[in-house]
Design a protein that fits this description.
Number of strands: 44
Shape: globular
Strand content: 35-45%
Largest sheet: 5 strands, antiparallel
Helix content: under 10%
Length: about 550
């Protein structure tokens, strides 16, 4: 059990599956259950990966019959072979599926395994759905180590790659430890079932509830390796610069499986760099300074086809600043005398996976990395070291989006409204006089979703989205999703004034409401409503039949 009030609690079920959680403070709680080999369950879910329904608990209240059902997970099994058809041991097998991360539809790992001496693997506990299977000679321990390093340092200093034909510790990890790469003429490339290097050509494996899908066998491919070298310009030669090659196949489109591991290296004092053992593919070459407080970045797209590539030039672009002031428009709420509890955020539209305010180059559209900063007492703010690229401007803290508090009304630069459009930050050009206006005239839509018998329908997702398709994008302010409570009621707060569709569904995945394809289908049966600044409306919706 996790949620509000005095924090979360956990409990273990008895032999009959019964549980009891005591000492919960008043608040809303999400109730979850998990067991090895089964798909995690959240109270209120109608199928895996859907959002759950919060349980409202009053002070000293006892609530019974919060029951959950666990579904046995599906299984994918198979065998990985080398180029001669022999068993390949210690290959890392990754099973991926589409999820919505920060509103973006992208493939994420659903399970991993390492092949045994017979080349066999088994990935279990999978929710029903479509999956893509890949194999790499990168060892499991190395993958985990690299992931932890990337999370901690934010730049992937310990990046591994599918190196020699025996697997083991890859060249990227050796480089991070100060051991020079030894170029190889050929090696194993990350390979996707049914045996292709090109990620968009990967085969789809469909798994039903509790189903075991076997014989997903394929050969890992032996490919020619290349060395990519070049120079990083724009630095002073004293700062450490990380250089990465990020696979692009299937990433920028958002529709194909993600590419292989990121290959990493370091620029020398004179700016030169060299990364060996690079499999064929499309990459984004990225140079980034290690210091997070003074970031600079340079990028160039390259295509590797087995031949060495030299002369790659990555010119570091320093961060820029963005500054301005926050003001409020009040219809009765006392204006803040101290704005320092607010924070201004400038998340990247397409961030780099390692975050830190970097600009994305199509290399895996992760959650929007933000550079944020405090606001002065008088409402002035300044964000430094933003990397060039497109950014949104947002305000958090200080009661923003809270009931009866402040909500964002407008962001303008030089009189141009950029509230819902990205701001292009250019190298060497600081942006000043950003005016952020907050208002206490918030919108509020309440209602009830009713079934065919006119009764309130619980545990449904209500989606409110703009009638204007230009706002159908990830993390749009003009798209909200809420859950109906036990009586079927819902409440949508703080939508910007405008025209909206509202619909209720029992079959929507967490974050799917940001997908334009989903919204296109949803509006056919949706109810349209217009709401103006400060307006409160009540309406009922028809539940799914």
């Amino acid at each position: 059990v996790a949620g509000g009030g005095r924090g979360g609690r956990t409990a273990t079920t008895d032999d009959q599956g019964r549980y009891r959680v005591d000492e919960l403070g008043a608040g809303n709680y999400m109730v979850t259950a998990s067991k090895t080999g089964f798909v995690d369950s959240i109270f209120g879910q109608r199928r895996p990966l859907q959002p759950g329904t919060p349980v409202a608990v009053a002070e000293a209240q006892t609530i019974a019959n919060i029951d959950l059902r666990l579904t046995r997970g599906g299984v994918i099994t198979g065998r990985v072979m080398d180029e001669d058809g022999e068993a390949l041991a210690r290959a890392l097998v990754t099973v991926q599926r589409y999820r919505y991360v920060a509103g973006e539809r992208q493939l994420t790992p659903a399970g991993v395994d390492q092949t045994d001496d017979r080349g066999q693997y088994r990935v279990f506990g999978l929710p029903p759905g479509d999956y893509f299977v890949s194999a790499s000679t990168t060892g499991l321990g190395e993958l985990i180590g690299r992931g932890m390093q990337q999370l901690a340092a934010g730049i992937g200093a310990l990046g591994a790659r599918g190196g020699g034909r025996g697997g083991g510790l890859g060249g990227g990890a050796l480089a991070a430890l100060g051991v020079p790469d030894e170029p190889e003429a050929s090696g194993y490339a990350p390979t996707y079932y049914p045996g292709v290097v090109s990620a968009p050509d990967a085969g789809k494996v469909t798994v039903g509830p509790g189903q075991e899908v076997g014989n997903i066998d394929f050969q890992i491919l032996l490919v020619p390796f290349a060395t990519v070298s070049g120079i990083v310009g724009g630095g002073d030669g004293t700062e450490s610069v990380a250089v990465m090659l990020m696979p692009q196949d299937g990433i920028s489109s958002g529709r194909g499986p993600i590419g292989g591991p990121t290959l990493t290296g370091r620029a020398q004092a004179d700016g030169t760099f060299s990364i060996a053992n690079v499999p064929p593919g499309r990459y984004m070459a990225i140079a980034r300074t290690v210091r997070a407080d003074q970031p600079a970045i340079g990028m160039q797209a390259i295509v590797v086809n087995g031949q060495n590539i030299g002369g790659v030039s990555l010119m570091l672009q320093p961060g820029v600043s963005l500054s301005g002031n926050i003001t409020v428009e009040s219809s009765g709420t006392p204006a803040p005398t101290d704005y320092s509890s607010f924070r201004v955020d400038a998340p990247d539209v397409t961030p780099l996976p390692f975050g830190g305010g970097g600009r994305g180059g199509g290399g895996g559209r992760g959650g929007a990395a933000a550079r944020n900063g405090p606001v002065e007492k008088n409402g002035a703010f300044r964000l430094d070291n933003l990397l060039p690229g497109q950014h949104h401007i947002r305000v958090t803290g200080g009661g923003v989006q809270g009931p009866g508090q402040w909500t964002l009304k407008a962001v303008t630069i030089g009189g141009l409204d950029v509230t819902d459009t990205p701001v292009e930050l250019k190298p060497g050009q600081n942006v000043e006089n950003v005016m952020i206006v907050l208002t206490d005239r918030t919108t509020d839509i309440t209602g009830t979703v009713r079934d065919a018998k006119g009764m309130g329908a619980a545990a449904l997702t209500v989606v409110a989205f703009s009638t204007d398709e230009q706002h159908w994008r990830a993390q749009s302010r003009r798209i909200q999703a809420v859950r109906t409570d036990q009586s079927g009621t819902f409440r949508v707060r703080n939508l910007p004034p405008g025209d909206y569709f509202l619909m209720a569904s029992d079959d929507v995945e967490q974050g799917e409401w940001f997908d334009p394809e989903f919204l296109e289908q949803a509006r056919a049966g949706a109810k349209q409503v217009s709401i103006s600044e400060g307006e409160k409306k009540t309406l009922d919706l028809r539940g799914p039949s």
